[in-house]
Fold this sequence. Notes:
6-stranded mixed β-sheet; 5-stranded parallel β-sheet; alpha/beta; 13 strands; 17 helices; 416 residues
Amino acid sequence: MPAAPSDLIFRHVTDRVSQSLADTPVVMLNGPRQCGKTTLAKQFAQGMAYLTLDDPAVLDAARHDPVGLLRQLDRAIIDEVQRAPQLLLALKLSIDQDRRPGRFLLTGSANLLALPHIADSLAGRMEVHTLLPFSQSELQGRPGDFLQRAQLQDWPICNPQWATPAVNGEGSMVVNALAGGYPEMRSRASPARRSAWAKAYIQTLVERDVQDIAQIEHLSHIPRLLEVAAAHCAQLVNASQIGGQLLMDTRTVEKYLGILEKLFLVQRLPAWGRNELGRLVKTPKLHFLDAGLQATLMRLTPDLLIKNRDRWGPTLETWVYAELRKTLAMNDDAWYLAHYRDKDQVEVDFVLESPLRQIIGVEVKAAASVQTQDFKGLRRLQAHTGRDFITGIVLYDGDKALRFGDGMWAVPLAAL
């Protein structure tokens, strides 16, 4: 494993990347722009050339003579590889001639393997890791143990580590969530400056990266679609309703949402269900992968949300979604993340299902207190799943873990 400079925040995926480079010819770091992929990749740069396809000359060579470009390289880091998908076929040829592990470390700001024009997936030759913006446990310099604690129901009444981290001296759950997880955004000195960064970031993605991965006729629709998606955050996806607001047909809405997913801006959270539970509603929910970007699009500020808590719920839920995604990604087992809703409109915000089909339910409450009725959806899920149900958790804005009956817990949001 490389030694990171002392001023860098340790990323949990580092060990996995190091292991992959030890036995796999090509390793790919996928994730949104500005989330720290290049910084992490350069920690492995010893003995490797570094190329970025944001350099026009390198990009031109990669597009017009990818084989010739790779012929000059023994081992290399290649940044923003989604800008020249032709490189993947040339990489396959190079790897088939020399299958030494750790030859190429790629980064991409789009979900490369989901792009329709990719010539080759490098199946059997490449391992892919996803790097998202900072998780809360990374920011606090400790391992993400939420899933392990949930499985064991190991919740001490109080825990000093459950203090909400301060952002440039400001320390509340609202301020922390709206600061997002992007390193540059969190470094800004005030909510206004963080919002300004987020606006510029979104504009850059729309003007450049969307065109890199898809040829669309009406690029001007993307900013408006993002705003509407932010307003529908944590709700069931209704492409027809969204299309009606934008004067777009349902098929176009679905296509454009897919583009935003490939850029790691939004994600559709599937509905959980088992074949025998036909009563469940199957429509996915829409979430952002960073609450700071969603809040910027909604023009939300800490002062506004502290005064008007009704607006806080969807942003908090999408913040929890992103944290759960990062937590599950670091687990050796492939956990499935979904939401639960039945025809009676009883719902649970998040269902975590293990490979053995064991269930953890997570409900999010934007308040500092918890009551018995807050566990209604979790108890319905428990009744449906029987012995497979491990625990139900209501995450709330408090500082104590409290037990509410068999397997039911109220747990501070800061436990994430």
